[in-house]
Amino acid sequence: MGKSLAAQMRRMQRMMRPAKLSKKSQSILIGAAFNPLGVATTKRRKSPTKSVGLTTSRVAKTTRSTDATAVSKTHKSGLNIPHGAQYLSRRHRCVQGSRGYNLYLPASATTKPKGLIVMLHGCKQDPDDFAIGTHMNAQAEKHGLAVVYPAQSRTQNPAGCWNWFASRHQQRGMGEAEILASMTRKLAREFGIGRDHVYVAGLSAGGAMAAILVDVYPDVFAAAGIHSGLARGAARDVPSAMAAMRRGAAGHVMAHTDARAVGRIIFQGDADSTVHPSNAAHLVASARGEGAEAHRVTRKALSKISYTRSEFVASGQHGPLEVCILEGAGHAWSRGRVAGSFTDPKGPDASAQMVRFFLATSR
Question: Which residue from 353, 269, 357, 279 is spatially nearest to 320, judged by alpha carbons?
Answer without folding.
Answer: 357
